[in-house]
Amino acid sequence: MAVQKRFYLLALPALVAASLLAPVAQAQDKFIVMASTTSTEQSGLFKQLLPQFTQASGINVRVVAVGTGQALDMARRGDADVLFVHDQPAEEKFVAEGFGLERKAVMYNDFILVGPKADPAGVRGNNIASALKGIVEKNASFVSRGDKSGTHSAELRQWKLAGVDLGANKPAGYKECGCGMGQALNIGSSTNAYVLTDRGTWLNFKNRGDLAVLVEGDKQLFNQYGVIVVNPAKHPHTKKDFAQVFSDWVVSPKGQEAIASYKIGGEQLFFPNANK
Predict the structure, then answer these.
(1) 5 domain-assigned
(2) Are strands 174-176 and 142-144 parallel, antiparallel or unpaired?
(3) Which residues, if any, are the signal sequence (predicted)?
């Protein structure tokens, strides 16, 4: 009995430590992986939004910020629990194929065309199709993300509406960087090129150089974001319940308020529209 008592006394501190650490370990395990677009990350939105969600739910969010196309591919492989992206046709296809449970509208902002303040192609205004035609006619430099992101998909739609067939003959000044929005803007700034960007990333972008907003306000530049929980029927290991908590929260009054309150220099970056 003395030996057993001594063993118990020696083991007691370890047992107490283990019991104290167990809640910490459980809290660390309470997380989801979110595949999202670079615009939500580089605009600074997540720095405001996600801590509020974690405080409300106890669930941490690990963000992988890539182009929307890559984010959708991640989720198809089961490498993410939830998507927060902005390419509605691709999102609806993802759900129709059975990879996502439901797509919910969350918020919107808009795309803008930025370029040199002097506007050598003479495109300033509110007509994106006319602006792109002007860039081609003047052989002006244009930097495309070229990364299958939501912004890249939107850009390709605008070229098509402008009657420019990039597949048949890319304009002389058209360059693809295969990069995120911030890097594309950096290239545009250093080379005085035109760039199509989401407004949120532009407002948070510090290295503007001689770039300015030249085209905005065209209804074709509307930019909608959605959230989708990955379907556990496709990937049983995904954390559907935690992901659903995030999906429900971000479209709730609290989540929508957190989005609306994010501003830079007094200017609102994203506009919640979950219930519209």
Answers:
(1) no
(2) parallel
(3) 1-27
**Torsion angle of C-alpha atoms 239, 228, 236, 148, degrees rounded to 10:** -110
Q: Please indicate, yes or no, if residue 1 is contained in any of the structural domains.
A: no
CB atoms inside a 10 Å sphere around CB 198: 28
CA angle 58/60/62 to nearest 5° reads 170
Question: For residue 235, is it within any domain?
Answer: yes
Handedness of CA 192, 197, 201, 204 (dihedral sign): positive
Q: What is the pLDDT along the chain (276 residues), one digit of tens a residue?
A: 554 555 444 555 554 444 444 444 444 579 999 999 988 988 999 999 999 999 999 999 999 999 999 999 999 999 999 999 999 999 999 999 999 999 999 999 999 999 999 999 999 999 999 999 999 999 999 999 999 899 999 999 999 999 999 988 899 999 999 999 999 999 999 999 999 999 999 999 999 999 999 999 999 999 999 999 999 999 999 999 999 999 999 999 999 999 999 999 999 999 999 987
Query: Same domain for 230 and 102?
Result: yes
* Cα-based angle 250, 253, 257 (whole degrees, multiple of 5): 80
Range(s) of the domain holding residue 140: 110-221
Same domain, 114 and 206: yes
